[in-house]
Amino acid sequence: MAKKFETEIVKTKEFNKTIRVVFGILYFISTFYIFIYDRESQNIYLWYLALAIYLFGAYFLFGQFLIKPKRIGKLTISTQRIEFNVNDENVSIPLNEIENVFLRYMDYGSWKTHSIYGNKNYLTITEKSGKKYDFEILLRSKDSKNNLKEILNGPEFYEKFDIVKVGNSFTEF
Length: 173
Known about the structure:
The chain is of the alpha+beta class. It is 29% helix and 32% strand. The protein is built from 3 helices and 8 strands. It has helices spanning 17-36, 44-62, 142-152; strands at residues 4-11, 70-78, 81-86, 89-94, 98-105, 121-127, 132-137, 161-165. Strands 1-2-3-4 form a 4-stranded antiparallel beta sheet. It has a 4-stranded mixed beta sheet with strand order 7-6-5-8, with no helix packed on it. Strand 3 (81-86) and strand 4 (89-94) form a beta hairpin. Helix 1 crosses helix 2. The chain is elongated. The protein starts with a strand and ends in an 8-residue tail after the last strand.
């Protein structure tokens, strides 16, 4: 019986870097105004504005792991083929047509790691014809990670699989 690994292909919402920098600066200014600046000389309207910026900034700066990534497809990896469905396009690639499978591993999702939905793990599949597919996939749990590891470290993917650990992941692949 062929082993299978199934997961979602997702697109994580990324905020514009300029907006993140502006909110970071406003966050620090509002923190200074609310907690450090002399309370007797504070304007009440500016204090409420600073509080709103502080709360809104805390959500955008630190609440990224609470935002669920948008599902755009499904990926199935087995010991015989790789199948995926992205934007209503079904593709099935037999194992003998795959040149390389490259995984950029961050971690799996849990309360102890960066995201409760799964971390940004990127999978690149290259066919022998030169066609490349880049996916952002979710590893939802340790069992999911171990299932993928068992398939990709198997004899079928022996010379086709490569991995790079990126970021500050807490676990080894």
